[in-house]
Amino acid sequence: MKMVKETKFFRKQAEKAERIALATSDEEASQSLSNLAQAYRSQADALKKSKTLKKSKKMSEKKGKKAKLK
Fold first, then answer.
1. 13 Cβ contact partners less than 8 Å away, ≥ 6 residues apart
2. Would you list the DSSP string of 18-68?
3. Residue 10 belongs to a domain
4. Cα–Cα dist 47/8, whole Å
5. Spacing of C-alpha 12 from chain mean position
6. 69 in any annotated domain
7. Are the CB atoms for 51 and 3 separated by under 8 Å?
8. Residue 64 counted as domain residue
9. I need a surface site. Which of 26, 49, 67, 70 has the fewest CB within 10 A?
10. CA pair distance 54, 43, nearest whole angstrom
11. What is the pTM of this model?
12. Does residue 63 lie in a domain region?
């Protein structure tokens, strides 16, 4: 699975968990689902950050190679 798809997957799962948490009358279940939603969001954020860092590193490497060629 590509990172973009993984990020979207985790965000959708977070939305589902949040919706169910709001719909349930059981406080303990609601809190667990809210925690799960937050965990999914955190995972999506971590994946996005990782992707951004990798992209940034690739750009730096390209610039370094161009500088060496000159």
1. 37, 40
2. HHHHHH---HHHHHHHHHHHHHHHHHHHHHHHHHHHHHHHHHHHHHHHHHH
3. yes
4. 10
5. 10
6. no
7. yes
8. no
9. 70
10. 17
11. 0.73
12. no
DSSP 8-state assignment for residue 13: H
- Residue 19 Cα to chain centre, angstroms: 19
The span from the CA of 67 to the CA of 70, in Å, is: 5
Count other C-beta atoms under 10 Å from residue 33's C-beta.
20
Residue found under tokens 């939603």: 37
**What gap in Å lies between CA 23 and CA 36, rounded to an integer?**
15
* Cα–Cα distance measured from residue 28 to residue 6, given in angstroms and rounded to the nearest whole number: 28
CB 23 within 8 A of CB 63: no
Q: Which domain holds residue 34?
A: 3-56
Amino acid identity, position 59: M
**Tens digit of pLDDT for each residue in 1-57?**
566 699 999 999 999 999 999 999 999 999 999 999 999 999 999 999 998 888 787
